[in-house]
Specification:
Number of strands of chain B: 2
Strand content of chain A: 15-25%
Largest sheet of chain A: 6 strands, mixed
Order of helices and strands of chain B: HHHHHEEHHHHHHHH
Radius of gyration of chain B: 20 Å
CATH superfamily of the largest domain in chain A: Response regulator
Number of helices of chain A: 12
CATH class of the largest domain in chain A: Alpha Beta
CATH architecture of the largest domain in chain A: 3-Layer(aba) Sandwich
Strand order of the largest sheet of chain B: 1-2
Number of domains of chain A: 2
Number of strands of chain A: 15
Distance between the termini of chain A: 68 Å
Largest interface: A-B, 49 and 47 residues
Distance between the termini of chain B: 18 Å
Structural class of chain B: mainly alpha
Helix content of chain A: 25-40%
Shape of chain A: globular
Oligomer: heterodimer
Shape of chain B: globular
Radius of gyration of chain A: 23 Å
Strand order of the largest sheet of chain A: 2-3-1-4-5-6
Chain lengths: 412, 315
Amino acid sequence: MIRDAIRKPLRAAAVLLAVLGCAPALVHAQGGPIKIGLLPPVTGPLATPGRDMVDGFKLFWEQAGNKAGGRAVEIVLADTTCNPDQALTQARRLALQEKVHFMVGPLCGHEGPAVAQVSKETGVPLVMDAAGADTITKWERTPTVVRTAVSASQIGHPWGEYLYKELGLRNVTFIGQDYTWGHEVTLGAVRTYTELGGKVAKIIWNPIGTRDYGPTIAAIPAGTDGVSAVVVGVDRARLFEAWFNFGMDKKFKIYGGYWMHQDALPQMDDRAIGLIGNSLHYAAGLDTPENRAFTDAFARKYKRLPSWFGESAYTAALWTKTAIDAINGKVEDRAAFLKAMRTVQVKAPRGPVRMDEYDNPVQNVYISRIQKIKHPVLGDVLTNVPVKTYEAVSQFWKWTPEEFLKRGPYKR
Amino acid sequence: MRNALRVPLALAALAVAVLLPVAAGPFWTGLLTQMYVFGLLALSVDLLLGHAGLFSLCHASFFAVSAYTTAILQVRHAVPTALAAPAGLLAGTLLGLVFGFAVRTRGVYFILITIAFGYVVWGVAHRWSSFTGGDNGVTNVPFPDVGAVRVESHTEYYYLVLAVVLLCALGYRLLVASPFGLTLRGIRASETRMRSLGYHSGLHLYAAFVVSAALASLAGVLYVYYNRFVNPVAASFPISVEAALMAIIGGTGTIVGPFIGSMIILWLRNWVSSFFELYASVMGLVFIAAVLWAPQGVVGLVGRLRARLAGAGSG
């Protein structure tokens, strides 16, 4: 009986060991496929943008025949769930166990520093996708990290100028989402707007997932001549509903600095038509051959238009392929790959992009208006159509990098 | 017989734990480290849950406060590990001294007040961005380096954590077997009776709360050197809940239980999610199964199976 009693736990231990032992993937020999680790939030609060990210990324590689630099390309997915702990662990899995050649992602802003940390400790290059924390390409740069999407305040700066110069506003209330990305976009706009001479009526911060936008709307001061909105996730539809349900559209004018992304538009309706929806480095309604080809392919495959998260992942894929081609597929040479990422020029759906000296893209920023268009695949559909383009916008706007860096990050 | 078995079993488990990094490779070594750290956090929760009968939902606070303290001292003020780590431990424990007043309440009120405490700490971590770094948190925490002990890789750190966890487990064992531990269990069984016997139940619970907070703080220090960054998620409500769930799934009132629970949950989250998108549902099913068939956790289940086998053997 004693032997039995010993045997059972031992057997259990053996099974456990076997499970643990089998799990690590086989090491791939050089010259095999190029392994790319993708870090989207497949589940969790940002699962919808996460789906756009996966779809955009896969669409590109499908179009490219899953080949780059003469080698096959293999994508390894890792769900970050929009939680930095999970992102860190998953990035370590990709780097150490799956032995990917480089990683692309993450999407959620606060995961950015965590994944950059893994890139730093393992040396595996990280192509930062939608995560937009300013500090990654400014105060806390990592030699192995390059960004292909956008820095938060990069889209805020032109927005502030647009509010003052094009919309002629002088007393603006800013509604901002209360976390790092929201702070940096909103306060970037506040800076350029006030430097031109604009007056801030009020800044109202809302935590992510604010259920009731009634109090926010009620707090808008009477003398406000325009409201700027920076909201993310489910808050986008909630602000939209509250705005019209409270009849605010008859009292104030609202303009979206970062609001009506393509993935949120299906939750809105025709009341959105005519509103300024976004100040962003991408708008699905952009009329260029590159973007038409991209949106048509995306719509045919997924029966919807891509949000900037979809375009961002697509461009990240295009950018990495261009870099891999430039070094003839030798991604094992990390320094060469990173150098290629920093020097190649890409004609993305969003327009021409190139890396600045601080590893952040210089690119157009589009102010877009919501319109209903006739799409060849989808029929009548709401989308963002650019009304004003700020060309080749740097993350430092019109300041020198030194000036900007000395001033420090935007903080509420 | 059971005692005769325990020593070889414990030695076998120790041998496995020592040899695992060699067999498992860096990723699994890292994940195991994480499992130990969260197991320690779950163990700290279980001191209250499994012994004193108090369901705390603010242990992420001690965990995060110690992690932040250590990280900020190391990164921004270049304070050496020998000071930064004890400072983190101290900060978390001091917070425990304050939050400990929650033991004036019982049952659902205790749960509610600890939730409120937890949200206060999360709010500070999230909003006071000039000090805590907001969502970006504090990054670039170095590996610990105390005199001769200089950790340079995750494998080395694994052994450090293993040693600390073993020491904690031994201390914990002594604690729960001591008159103090027995008093806690007495209070859990019937507080009025313990009071009528002359025990100051409030003081005992307060002391247990502070010890538990200190243990959670230790887990926080180990966590920050493993993760090498910390952000408000460490202080968030889900971490407190997860720690309690780990203890429940593994088996409350035991020492190995919380570690087993932490292994199950982290393994599910990290491994199943790599090939199955709906892994959260898998976790949900595991919780349901645990509640239905193993209310005493995995440890209770093993005990029951063993009892049944022994019964069948003798009958």
